[in-house]
Design goal:
The chain is an alpha/beta fold. It is built from 14 helices and 19 strands. Bound molecules: D-serine (DSN). D-serine is lined by residues 25-26, 89, 117, 167.
Length: 421
C-alpha cells in the first residue's frame, strides 16, 4: 500500500490538463478560492434539514453559509425560492420530478440525439420516477422544438410536465410558447439549465423563470464556474414541495465544503459574470465561424451557429465523432463525441458529431483571436496537416499563456494548489 501512488496519478492528470485545451461543454475550472473550501473542515460535517431546523448540533456556522448560498442564488437568478442542497444535476432533476409529478404521469422532453439529457428520459431519473416520456418533435434545420406539432401532441396526451433545457443547446428555447401550451392543459414547465446556468447568471441568455417556467434546475459547474453540485429555483408556491422532495426525498447530507465553494463562485459570478458570459458567447460564435470557414459542417448555420458556450459539428465525412474526438485527444484537445438530431440512439458509441464548449478556455482568458488559433489546431489535427506530435507541442506552447483563472477575485494559478495567504 503506497498512498503516494494516488498523488502520482493526480500529478500526471494535472500535467495533462495543464498542457491541454479543455473543451468539454459540461466542465469548468474553479478558482483556487473555491478550491480552498473543498479541503476545509466543512467536508467532514453533516447538516440535514433546513437552515435553523437541523437534525444535528454544530450547524450554526453552516447555517450562515447555506443562508448566504440561498440569498445569492435568489439574487443572481431573480427568483423567489432557491434550494441549494442537490448534490448534482441529476439529483436536482429527480427531486423536481418528485415535486411535480406522480408515478405513471406522462412528460415531454427532448430525445438524447436532439440534445436532451439522459435524466430527462426513461433510462435515468424520469424512469426511476415511473414517468412515461414522449419526445418533442424537433426541427433539425432550426435546431429547436417544432411547436405546432408539439401543441397537437400535447393536447392529445396531456403531459403533466414539459422539460426544456438540454445538453446540446445552441439556441434559446421556446419557454413562453411552451408555457401557453402547458396552461391550456394544466401542466408544469421545468427548465434544466445545467449547461447555460452561468450564461443566465451573466445575463447573456434567457432567464427561464422570468419567461414562465415554474422550476429551473441546474448543475453549478458547467458555464456556472462553481463546484460540482446543483440548485433548484422556483416560484414561492412550489417551495415546500421542492424542499421536501430534496430533503428527506433524495438528499441526506449535502456536502458542505462544496456548498461553501458555491458561495464563493456565486460571489464571483455577481462580480464578473456579465463580462465572462458575454465573452463565452463571443468566443463560441467566433470558433463556429472559423470552423465553418475552414469547411466544416457546423450546426445552426442559418441562425448564427450558436447563442451559448457550445459549438456542434457534424464530422461524419471525417470519420465520425468517435474517431475525430480520439484524434483531437491525441494532440491535447479534449472534447466529446456527440449524438446529433439525425443520429439514432444506437449510434451512441460512434455518433456523427462532436460538441465543443468554450466556457473553460474563456475562464482561462481566451478571446476571439485565440479561437481562430484553436480552429486551426482542430483543423490541422482532423485533416492531419501535420504530425500529431508536432501539433501537440504547438498546443503545449500555446497553452502556456492560459494557466491562470480569470473572472475571479485574484489571478491564480489554475492547476496548482494555492498557498494559504
Ligand atoms: N452528460 C453531461 C454533459 O452534458 O456533458 C451532463 O451531465
Amino acid at each position: 500500500m503506497n498512498p503516494s501512488r494516488v498523488f502520482d496519478i493526480i500529478e500526471k492528470h494535472t500535467k495533462m490538463m495543464e498542457d491541454s485545451i479543455p473543451l468539454i461543454a459540461s466542465e469548468n475550472i474553479t478558482s483556487p478560492l473555491v478550491r480552498r473550501c473543498y479541503v476545509s473542515d466543512l467536508g467532514h460535517r453533516y447538516a440535514e434539514g433546513k437552515v435553523g431546523e437541523r437534525f444535528y448540533e454544530g450547524c450554526s456556522y453552516i447555517d450562515e453559509i447555506e443562508q448566504m448560498a440561498i440569498d445569492l442564488t435568489r439574487k443572481i437568478f431573480e427568483v423567489e425560492h432557491a434550494n441549494v442542497q442537490p448534490i448534482s444535476g441529476v439529483v436536482a432533476n429527480i427531486a423536481a420530478f418528485f415535486a411535480l409529478t406522480s408515478a405513471g404521469d406522462t412528460i415531454m422532453s427532448l430525445s438524447v440525439p436532439c440534445g436532451g439529457h439522459i435524466s430527462h428520459d426513461t433510462v435515468s431519473a424520469a424512469g426511476l420516477r415511473g414517468l412515461r416520456v414522449v419526445h418533442y418533435p424537433f426541427n433539425n434545420e432550426e435546431m429547436t422544438i417544432d411547436l405546432d406539432r408539439t401543441a397537437v401532441i400535447a393536447r392529445e396526451i396531456e403531459p403533466k410536465l414539459f422539460i426544456l433545457g438540454s445538453s446540446l443547446i445552441l439556441f434559446r428555447q421556446p419557454v413562453s410558447e411552451i408555457r401557453k401550451i402547458a396552461d391550456e392543459i394544466g401542466a408544469y414547465v421545468m427548465y434544466d439549465a445545467s449547461h447555460v446556468l452561468g450564461l443566465i447568471a451573466g445575463k447573456s441568455f434567457q432567464n427561464p423563470i422570468k419567461e414562465g417556467a415554474d422550476v429551473m434546475t441546474g448543475s453549478t459547474h458547467k458555464t456556472f464556474f462553481g463546484p460540482q453540485r446543483a440548485i433548484i429555483a422556483s416560484k414561492e408556491g412550489l417551495a415546500e414541495d421542492i424542499d421536501r422532495a430534496v430533503f428527506p426525498g433524495v438528499v441526506s447530507n449535502h456536502h458542505l465544503n462544496t456548498l461553501a465553494g458555491y458561495v464563493i463562485a456565486a460571489m464571483e459570478m455577481l462580480e464578473f459574470g456579465e463580462r465572462y458570459a458575454k465573452q463565452v458567447v463571443k468566443n463560441a460564435k467566433t470558433l463556429a465561424e472559423e470552423l465553418y470557414n475552414l469547411g466544416y459542417r457546423v450546426l445552426g448555420e442559418n441562425k448564427g451557429f450558436t447563442e451559448t458556450h457550445q459549438v456542434a459539428v457534424d464530422v461524419k465525412e471525417h470519420g465520425g465523432g468517435e474517431r475525430v474526438a480520439k484524434k483531437l485527444e491525441a494532440v491535447g484537445i479534449i472534447l466529446n463525441k456527440n449524438l446529433l438530431p439525425w443520429d439514432s440512439i444506437e449510434d451512441t458509441e460512434d455518433p456523427s458529431g462532436i460538441r465543443i464548449g468554450v466556457q473553460e478556455v474563456t475562464r482561462l482568458g481566451m478571446k476571439e483571436e485565440d479561437m481562430r488559433i484553436l480552429a486551426n489546431f482542430i483543423d490541422a489535427a482532423i485533416r492531419e496537416k501535420k504530425s500529431a506530435a508536432t501539433i501537440r507541442e504547438e498546443i503545449k506552447e500555446f497553452k502556456k499563456n492560459f494557466r491562470t483563472v480569470k473572472y475571479s477575485f485574484d489571478e491564480f494559478d489554475a492547476y496548482r494548489f494555492p498557498e494559504l495567504k
